[in-house]
Write a structure and sequence with these properties.
The chain is of the alpha/beta class and about 450 residues long. About 60% of the residues lie in helices and about 10% in strands. It has 22 helices and eight strands. Strand 6, helix 11 and strand 7 form a beta-alpha-beta unit. Part of the signal recognition particle protein translocation system, which is composed of SRP and FtsY. SRP is a ribonucleoprotein composed of Ffh and a 4.5S RNA molecule. Its main location: cytoplasm. Belongs to the GTP-binding SRP family. SRP54 subfamily.
């Protein structure tokens, strides 16, 4: 979502980071570029003004003039102010209430409220070890009730049935009463959305809020609505005592303005980011990590957390032991590594979280590396266990069978075998502690003079 903004800011700041001395002119010139980049990213004008003024004030003060490396210090100020605009630190849900704690979800139609309810239920069950019940008070869209029931089954949350002939307040109160009997920790209430803000919606949701007094009232907003996010957020904030924001569709190609504007305008923290359509695609929002990523400085903490939750530790340990003992790296090992990479969102997702790797992440995306990984996985799955363990036995007829089974060509298979040999060589180097050599080998596979992964046909 922040790719364009990240590119523009990196270009603007690169002109100043190497400077031995900062003066009024080069600070003003850089801030002009930063301002332009933020406006193009659909950040609200009041937010841009406040941000630029604050950076200018700090940059022209003593903070930079005393620094050993003024250019680097200026970048640090921009990162710090960017973090401040988005909310300083991650703010978790406040569920410290007599069970069941009620969470009310509000927002416009199409923002992804119902999916976010299921994602949040899964998150609370897995990360907070809570027993969760979900209920839909959307009496205008029976399909929304059915959708929530399906999603609740998928994430393993309890579902309280409701129907279009009931009143939203009665539905919510019924769910809370049932939750008390079933010893449920958290009840998440999905509400009706509209295509635009109207008085009837606001009166209904105000009444619902007053009746159930939720501990958290979350405003679900689509990251792709840009500048309009500000007006919508303002209207909901005036009608309801919001406690936080869930920003959905952050994996899309929106310009990122909503994320940078909504906190400043409403004063309410962004608590979660929706980063995909799957039920596990919900992340706690860390302003400092996102600011670091926007400025091309990586996000190693998120990468470590992602690795801890999504990597198969047994498979990783098995491979480490194998490498240590000097055993050969076979195609089954390669397939495991490809699957682990896909679980973490693909190579470009991993690379963009590493400091200074933003350009390589872009190269990986442009080379369509994700599709190539899927193709390689299909080829390996079309082999017999014996062929995976010992690719040297592959003759012409075996290769034909494998390519027909995976819907690929002989060239694709030969390319995979060549890449496997390269990786096997790298693994041998790792045995001798040659990690630097291995990293050089990986950069050669990713791209560079005459090498790299060719584009998919």
């Amino acid at each position: 979502m922040f790719q364009n903004l990240s590119d523009r800011l990196s270009q603007s700041l690169s002109k100043i980071t190497g400077k031995a001395r900062l003066n009024h002119d080069n600070i003003q010139g850089t801030l002009r570029e930063v301002r332009k980049a933020l406006l193009e990213a659909d950040v609200a004008l009041p937010v841009v003004k406040a941000f630029v003024n604050q950076v200018r004030k700090r940059a022209l003060g003593q903070e930079v003039s005393r620094a050993l490396n003024p250019g680097q210090q200026f970048l640090k100020i921009v990162e710090s102010e960017l973090t401040s605009v988005m909310g300083e630190a991650n703010e978790t849900l406040n569920l410290a209430a007599k069970p069941p704690a009620v969470v009310l979800m509000a927002g416009l139609q199409g923002a992804g409220k119902t999916t976010s309810v299921a994602k949040l239920a899964k998150f609370l069950q897995e990360k907070e070890k809570k027993k969760v019940m979900v209920v839909s008070a959307d009496i205008y869209r029976p399909a929304a009730i059915k959708q929530l029931e399906t999603l609740a089954t998928e994430v393993g949350a309890e579902f309280f049935p409701s129907s279009a002939d009931q009143k939203p307040v009665d539905i919510a109160n019924g769910a809370i009463a049932q939750a008390k009997k079933s010893f449920v920790d958290v009840v998440i209430v999905d509400t009706a959305g509209r295509l635009h803000i109207d008085d009837a919606l606001m009166d209904e949701i105000k009444g619902l809020h007053a009746a159930i007094t939720p501990v958290e009232t979350l405003f679900v907003i689509d990251a792709m609505i840009g500048q309009d996010a500000v007006n919508t957020a303002k209207a909901f904030d005036e009608a309801l005592p919001l406690t936080g924001v869930v920003l959905t569709k952050a994996d899309g190609d929106a310009r990122g303005g909503a994320a940078l504007s909504v906190r400043h305008i409403t004063g309410k923290p962004i608590k979660f980011l929706g980063v995909g359509e799957k039920v596990e695609a919900l992340e706690p929002f860390y302003p400092e990590r996102l600011a670091s990523r926007i400025l091309g400085m990586g996000d190693v903490m998120s990468l470590i957390e992602q690795a801890e939750s999504k990597l198969d530790k047994d498979k990783a340990d098995k491979l480490v032991q194998k490498v240590k003992k000097g055993k050969s790296f076979d195609l089954e090992d390669l397939r495991d590594q490809l699957q682990q990479m896909q679980n973490m969102g693909g190579m470009s997702s991993v690379l963009e979280k590493l400091p200074g790797m933003g350009n390589i992440a872009q190269m990986a995306e442009q080379a369509n590396v994700g599709s190539q990984f899927k193709q390689m996985d299909a080829i390996i799955n079309s082999m017999t266990p014996a062929e995976r363990r010992n690719p040297d036995i592959l003759n012409g007829s075996r290769k034909r069978r494998i390519t027909v089974g995976s819907g690929t060509d002989i060239q694709d298979l030969n390319r995979l075998l060549k890449q496997h040999k390269q990786m096997a060589k790298m693994m041998k180097k790792m045995k001798g502690g040659g990690m630097a050599k291995m990293m050089r080998g990986m950069s050669g596979m990713l791209g560079g003079a005459g090498g790299g992964l060719p584009p998919m046909r």
